[in-house]
Design goal:
Elements lengths: L11 E6 L5 E2 L14 E5 L1 H7 L2 H5 L28 E3 L1 H6 L4 E6 L9 H14 L4 E5 L3 H13 L2 E7 L4 H9 L3 E5 L3 H13 L4 E2 L8 H5 L1 H9 L7 E5 L4 H15 L9 E7 L4 H7 L26 H10 L3 E5 L1 H15 L5 H16 L7 E6 L25
Parallel strand pairs: 5-13, 6-7, 6-9, 7-8, 10-11, 10-13, 11-12
Antiparallel strand pairs: 1-2, 1-3, 4-5
Helix pairs in contact: 4-5, 5-6, 9-10, 13-14
Bound molecules: pyridoxal-5'-phosphate.
Length: about 400
């Protein structure tokens, strides 16, 4: 589906190196800066401020394209239906943990079943505008599905390089959308090297996390949407399952843009980066007071989306976490799976393991006292739980069995 002409009033002024501040033109294809760091999109916020009001925004369709003045589109976008995602209240968590409110933003409702659709909707539409013919991505599953779907929708070839233990359902999905899908004997950073090498040889465009400027612009719409849904307020704490960190960095950027537009005030939620015990480079760097994280050796977790041993935007994640007076914390796989099972049984909400990691972290950090009683807390469920393995204790039923025995 192609959206109408009025959906691309581009207000981009330039791109900016996130480390050095150096400016880059936005009217051509860009990757990372000369310093090797992510590029951030900058807008003419003073001009947008003159025209954009809360009321205007709220009268528009509830999709991520609602924030068109703050998106870098160069043509009407091809859309797969990027709807608002619901905030579901978890009464069980708020009651047992003595919290004012616990909301779960359920991103599993997006196209391809995960929030990767937000970033890739923007990245692929922009690549199309710049005439890119082939896009490649290193992926643990969800990013590949989203890339493959959007590439097929706009008519770009896609290639997905996946660690060999990527769940079959994700591999099948990517391939079914038409992506050339490869199992690689390595982790996501090994897949990243393959994609980078091919891009340097001019074979394709590198769509890896933060290696192009636009996925973050798609992901930042989580921040806009949240503020919009919470009636221009913010929660006290946001727990985010952190792999490459695009969403956390993106939301932090979104809050700054909204403040510059006079749509929200100065106060910010505490941003909590949640990682898995056996893949926690950001947590380690946070605790050691470092600006950059060391690559994590032998990364392992059932939460595939956060099995990211090296993040290009590590310094941006750490800065947002520290500026927000938040923290980074790691949870065990046992705690993740326990939280996932208990929330499914008590509340009817099927979290993906990464989403369950934020619930496990909330439980852990209420005990530690780092999250205070009475707080309003937001958890992210980044993908539908249906793509992940579930224990299935199914009973056998004999046709002659007495129903009263059941
Ligand atoms: C990609 C992914 C994450 C991590 O998101 P980042 O913004 O890259 O840190 C978490 N959960 C799921 C399900 C994902 O697919």
């Amino acid at each position: 589906m192609q959206l109408s002409e009025s959906n691309h009033p581009n207000q981009v002024t330039h791109l900016e190196c996130s480390a050095t501040g150096q400016h880059y033109p936005a009217d051509r294809i860009q990757t990372i800066s000369e310093a090797g760091k992510p590029l951030l999109v900058r807008y003419d916020l003073p001009s947008i401020k003159k025209i954009l009001t809360r009321e205007q925004l709220q009268n528009r369709e509830p999709t991520l394209w609602r924030y068109k003045e703050l998106l870098p589109l160069r043509a009407p976008p091809i859309s797969l239906g990027e709807t608002f995602t619901p905030l579901i209240e978890s009464k069980a968590l708020s009651q047992t943990l003595d919290l004012d409110q616990v909301l779960i933003k359920d991103e599993g409702r997006l196209p391809t079943g995960s929030f990767k659709a937000r970033g890739l909707a923007l990245a692929v539409n922009l690549a199309k505008s710049f005439g890119v013919g082939k896009m490649a991505i290193p992926t643990n599953g969800n990013a590949g599905s989203a890339l493959a779907a959007y590439c097929s929708a706009v008519g770009i070839e896609s290639l997905c390089f996946c660690p060999s233990d990527t769940p079959e359902v994700n591999l099948q999905e990517m391939a079914f959308y038409g992506a050339k899908t490869f199992k690689v004997n390595g982790l996501i950073n090994d897949c990243g090297k393959i994609v980078k090498t091919g891009a340097e040889q001019g074979l394709w465009f590198d769509t890896a996390t933060l290696r192009e400027p636009y996925r973050i612009e798609g992901k930042k719409t989580m921040g806009f949407e949240l503020v919009d849904q919470m009636h221009w307020e913010l929660p006290d704490v946001i727990l985010y399952p952190t792999g490459g960190g695009t969403g956390l960095i993106g939301m932090w950027k979104a809050f700054d843009e909204l403040e510059a537009l006079g749509l929200i005030g100065k106060s910010r939620p505490k941003m909590v980066a949640v990682q898995a015990e056996h893949c926690a480079p950001i947590v380690q760097a946070f605790e050691q007071g470092l600006d950059h994280a060391e690559p994590w050796a032998n990364a392992q977790t059932a939460a595939a989306g956060i099995r990211v041993p090296v993040a290009l935007g590590d310094f941006l994640i750490l800065k947002a976490v520290r500026d927000s007076a938040g923290f980074a914390t790691a949870v065990s796989d046992a705690a993740i799976l326990k939280a996932q099972a208990s929330i499914a049984k008590t509340e009817g909400i099927l979290l993906c393991p990464e989403g369950a990691a934020t619930a496990a972290a909330l439980i852990q950090e209420r005990k530690s006292g780092r999250i205070k009683s009475g707080s309003r807390v937001l958890l992210f469920n980044c993908a539908t739980g249906l793509k992940y393995p579930m224990p299935a204790p199914i009973h056998r039923f004999d046709n002659h069995q007495n129903l009263a025995e059941l």
